[in-house]
Amino acid sequence: MFLINGTMLIAGGSIVLLAMADKTAESYGIHWLGAVVKVLLPIAGFAAIVYFGDSSAVRGLLR
Asked: What is the model's pTM?
């Protein structure tokens, strides 16, 4: 089992992309987009963990 796989690379790339979009939106004066990203994204991540946390594949990774 490798520590870095395709899923981890996609997750890391999406985090970098979201941070870049947030900074770009703030520099162009779209401040509400940064607030939405900073508030709704952690809530969506928590909901995904609650939903997918019960699957046996995730439990196998956490052992």
From this structure: 0.58
